[in-house]
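ingest -> validate -> predict -> emit
validate: passed (alphabet ok, no gaps, 270 aa)
predict: started
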Amino acid sequence: MLVYIIPYEGELFKETRQAYFLKAFGEEVKEMRIIPFGKCNYSCPYCKRNGYNKHSCIIDGSIVVNEPVVFNAVSDAIDKGQIVRLSGGDPCTYPSLSIKLLKFVKKRNGIGSMAHNGSSPTLIKNLVDNHLLDSLSVDLKAETPEKLAKIAGISSSQSIIMWNKTIQTLRVLKYAKEVKVDIRTCVFNDTDFEELLKIGEIIQKNSNENVFWTLRKYSIVDNFSTETKDTESMKELAQMLSSQLPNLKIGIRVKWDNGAFFYYMNGKEC
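emit:
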């Protein structure tokens, strides 16, 4: 099987990130090896991986590799004690391969994770039912289908379907108490408190105690003409939301560097 992979700084499988949200669960932050599939069913104009430039669902600049090359990268990550994070693009464009990879991770006693846009409750249920996920990051991009259409670069009719599927995904995860869930919402300059509060209420209604909500500061890209909030504004929003949603762990991520992650609960910074 041929697989499209997004290179990082000109190399394959070079990218690593820190799983900061594990702090909120009292765990040590671990390094993740990113496995970035080069296909996506969304066209988010603010995508940092060029996801809005595609032919069909294939992201421009992706490199084709044979399936064993992907397994070798996963094996290397396990040997180094890294979390294996399937990402993209989006893993839902490779559902069978994603399942195979995460089964391989479990067989090797590794730690399996995924970053997903929320559009495939079927895939997530399969992974949950087979105990293949240790953690999952899932997007809740907007509080309404109309807003999702703009943010994800999809049609109005498609956004209704995808928004409902995202809610279904959250409901699947509500009963997956062994999976640590990081729900992610990108915050733009024009994103206001009331909009975020509605998203938070949706999360609180459809989640369990193993859920963390990350507000991701939008990083400016040429393709998306909007400004970004400063870090202090982001922290203020998170604290206000935490006061209104006291049972929900809420964090902000302004960049991937150390010291750029903060989280709140009951209106107080933790």
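The chain has one domain: 2-177+191-214.
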